[in-house]
Task: structure prediction
Amino acid sequence: MPPAPAPAPVPTREGEQPDFDAVPPRAKWRYKPRRVWRSRLVRGITVITVLALCGLVILGLVREETGTEGFLVGLGLAVLPVPLLVTAFRWLDRVEPAPWKNLLFALAWGAFASTLIAIFANSFAVEWISSATADRDSADALGATAVAPFVEETAKGAAVLLLFLFRRRDFNGPVDGLVYAGFTATGFAFTENILYLGNAFGEDQDGGSAGVGSVTVGTFVVRVVLSPFAHPLFTSLTGLGLGFAALLATTARARRVRMTLLPLGGLILAMGMHALWNGSATFHPMAFILVYGMFMVPVFALLTWLAIWSRQQELRTISAELPAYAAAGWLAPDEPLALSSMRARSMARAFAARGHGKPAARAVGEYEAFATTLAFLRHRVRRGQAVPDFAAREQELLHHLWQRRPLASPALTYAARATGRVWTPPQYLDYGGYNPYRG
Result:
């Protein structure tokens, strides 16, 4: 095995007001590209336009398939699990929250682009198989168990791959892969549920039901109550593959092979689980129950444990990397322990809000986010990953921390001691220029 890379040296803090030479003036923070297509604004407008067009097309197709009344009923029912899923994935991502623009892109891609690709590709494949075999029932069964998993997981996984390639700074490991995959699959399931619930409502109307009937209720129970995590569970395997690929060191042997095999392996597993799920629902009701109870639930529990374990690893990374900056004088000695505890972080924000209002709590939250990014940046260098602009990014993060330190440092010191993560001095002693017992 190659030797572990030496840790990056921590810049020495000089004086009470350190100079940040690498941080440009505020007027120069905005990147000004030489060519129009390199502009972030132009690229953002292009992405939004494409996704909006996909949304208009797919929602128009779904409304045409279900009818206006069925579409509205399906929309109202399909939106119910979305807040639950979004909240669950945001909770998982609390250590270093992903930018909302990335999450909204993943959600919109899943809801609009992925479903549009899937509806055309699945329909074309089923029609082709049906014409070749002259057996429509077999074509539908084969499309559900073989074609749909391949097409849908590839379409959803494309969003996670795009974020991995073009938002690499925001893709640090398995947790990010799980979160991006979860948001993409949540969007996909939302649009797909509109179609299924709208068609079920149409069947109830054709059967003489005056409103929501048994078919709609049954579809709602199966798709929204029993299996809201089904699509996120499938796509999370692709996200895990890309997340573990993000941990590979630049100097690792056979890195290119692993960078290919890990995401590809995750995608194949996602397709296999999706095919098993669709097959169980297609062939026999008892098969669905067996697969749900003996396979889907244990896999979901395993992935939930893995997600929580990965988040704990992120907190351990913070506690391992930030003491170097505390030793150099950039952080107070107790801050790394507070920053590696979600309870202490929350307590620090609440303490700042009580003493100085909501702006202080927001400053402490920003301080926590910048410190977390700094720890992960240093950890990437320690793992041997190439970070060409490491020194400049490190100095910019230290600059942001230094601006917020007067409010954040006392709050985090208090939180570290109030949560019992460090020893609390007696009441009559002042420590670090701050004593919460002093009236």
Remarks:
- Residues 40-78 form the longest helix (39 residues).
- Residues 27-33 have pLDDT under 50 and may be disordered.
- The two ends are 58 Å apart (CA to CA).
- The CA atoms of residues 160 and 180 lie 6 Å apart.
